[in-house]
Amino acid sequence: MAWDLLFKSDIGLLSLFTICFIIAMAVWLARYAMKKMAEDERNARSDFVKKS
């Protein structure tokens, strides 16, 4: 019953799309943040070496 409603009705498909979009956005945001943190750490280390 619930699976039929999720996959066969308009509101169910919209809900499924929304759930998938939120999960994809969370994955992208986590990867972006990790990339920026690593970049910031590299910049901080290079600044520390230059000051020494």
UniProtKB/TrEMBL annotation:
The keyword Transmembrane helix applies. InterPro entries: DUF3149. The chain crosses the membrane at residues 12-33. It holds the Pfam family DUF3149. Keywords: Membrane, Transmembrane, Transmembrane helix. It comes from the Bacteria. This is DUF3149 domain-containing protein. It comes from Candidatus Methylophosphatis roskildensis.
